[in-house]
Prior knowledge:
Layout: E1 5-10, E2 23-24, E3 29-37, E4 46-55, E5 79-93, E6 100-103, E7 116-124, E8 130-136, E9 146-151, E10 154-159, E11 167-170, E12 181-188, E13 193-198, E14 204-207, E15 219-221, E16 234-242, H1 248-255, E17 274-278, E18 297-299, E19 303-321, E20 334-340, H2 343-347, E21 350-351, E22 354-355, E23 358-359, H3 360-370, E24 378-380, E25 386-387, E26 390-391, E27 395-396, H4 397-408, E28 411-414, E29 420-423, E30 439-440, E31 451-455, E32 464-469, E33 475-478, H5 480-486, E34 490-496, H6 501-515, E35 521-527, H7 533-542, E36 548-553, E37 562-576, E38 581-589, E39 595-596, E40 611-612
Parallel strand pairs: 24-29, 30-36, 32-34, 39-40
Antiparallel strand pairs: 1-2, 1-5, 3-4, 3-37, 4-20, 5-16, 5-19, 6-15, 6-18, 7-12, 7-16, 8-9, 8-15, 9-10, 10-11, 12-13, 13-14, 16-17, 19-20, 21-27, 22-26, 23-25, 28-29, 31-35, 32-33, 35-38, 36-37, 37-38
Amino acid sequence: MASPTLTLEIAFATDPGSTPTWTDVSAYxxxxxxxxxxxxxxxxxxxxxxxxxxxxxxxxxxxxxxxGAFYGNIKPMKKVRLSADRAGLALALTxxxxxxxSLTDNSSISVGDIDFTYAIWIYPTSVVATTxxxxxxxxxxGDLSFVLTxxxxxxxxxxxxxxxxxxxxxxxxxxxxxxxxxxxxWHDASANTINIQINNGTADSVAHSTGVRDSSLKFxxxxxxxxxxxxxxxxxxxxAFFKRVLxxxxxxxxxxxxxxxxxxxxxxxxxxxxxxxxELEESTGSRLDAHGTNHLTPQNGPTNAAGITHRYRLFTGFxxxxxxxxxxxxxxxxxxxxxxxxxxxxxxxxxxxSYSSELSSTRITNVLDTASWLAADxxxxxxxxxxxxxxxxxxxxxxxxxxxxxxxxGRLFIDGSGRLVFQDxxxxxxxxxxxxxxxxxxxxxxxxxxxxxxxxxxxxxxTDVRVTRTGGAEQIASSAAAIATYLRxxxxxxxxxxxxxSEAESAAYYLFGRYSIVGVRIEAITISPERDATTQYPQxxxxxxxxxxxxxxxxxxxxxxLTQDAIxxxxxxxxxxxxxxxxxxxxxxxxxxxxxxxxxxxxxxxNSTTKVAY
Length: 614
């Protein structure tokens, strides 16, 4: 499959603090490089940056050219965003071959008089027959539950409360052949309705107060019953099942103006009460559940084909400069613009205010409110640390936000969409961040890499850790044995905002436990996605800071395989319009063992974990 299509947009007509109105200038893009995150896991996250080379042969990006299309709006601090569009793969079903997918009923997919939602992309190749898209529904009454049906050029969602009688809601929009549609159906147990929506348009709703039967029939994609009849012909992509009603905002985000969302693009908020997410990209074999264990079994040999085109945000920020370059001839004129992400804007906001003692996440929210940061551009996790009351005098918003993140021992960065992301220190221990999202190596079934950067040195070796909160006593974690082996190597963190010395002590022992041991570290991985475009680009474009991957390195000549789970700390892309693409991920080792957490169902088993989280 082809390289991604690059989209470059600049908000020429809007000021930096306003909701942007974007102008597409992709036709003038020649090359770019982006860099977000941090080089070292103990550093603060740096402001992300982008270097973007534009063709300026017609001088449209020349601030002095009065006839230019953007004259008067070629200014610093104009907002810019860079995206990559690429089609994925989808399930391909041939109706004449009776192809479909099946799943034996189990408690995780049980419904009833509860909230639930199915979301799915469909691409019918014909609109002249009745076919079944998904459901637990057979030709014989008695154990019917729900079904999404294609009635020629229309869609219908049907439920049964008693296994026999049916209640229908019909979608108003009609279908055309060979066109992608995003369909969401749901049962709202509180509002007593069943609903259907196409392409984030107006939802159709019908009253229904008696719930939905919990059937024992198989869950089927692409047919009625267990392959009885009414086979769907076409493609199906990105199907999901939630045991809740999605908000209208969430449905809009998942439609994404026709670009959809992959599982890797879901936020933790999207994943609430998510039971299963099927990306449906496999060419043969089971169609895997990316979120749970409800893998779908293929019947009669379905394959795959081109899916919907996804849009991945690589960088969003503010242009700092528009330098004019006119080498030799005007026809080769270019503008190498430099841009910085939202950290720059936050650094320009002085805080002279007071905050009460509050949870770290609450403080982040309050600072962003003070800075007039758009609510839609925030992804803030729960927070674990209670902060002291703070009175600030001309302290930049960015400085204080970074102090909060350091006190929490969390991550604070700007993602590719321009959203400020705050991940508390427990985020790596929770789904989906506690599970590797891809395995890179040199064996069959592993993704290919170009280069690994390994280290076995003392760059992050500390035998003496000192942590001091504001107004508190210095807390020390050290080991005579470690000092005897490696000498005294100290790291000090001061001015932290937690409220107790006991938490400062816990932070010191956590850092000591992680950094007092020497080991081989994989610090970076370089990937050339064109070498295996089909499997590599979804990873290269879809991964974000904080994601976990697995890397395997087999030594030349044999020996033990080096296997390491790693957390992505930084992301760098370099690409041009010729198809060249290189990605570098800066990494830190994920913990070799799980943490022990009080009252955690998955991390509180004594003798199976070795470190205490705080």
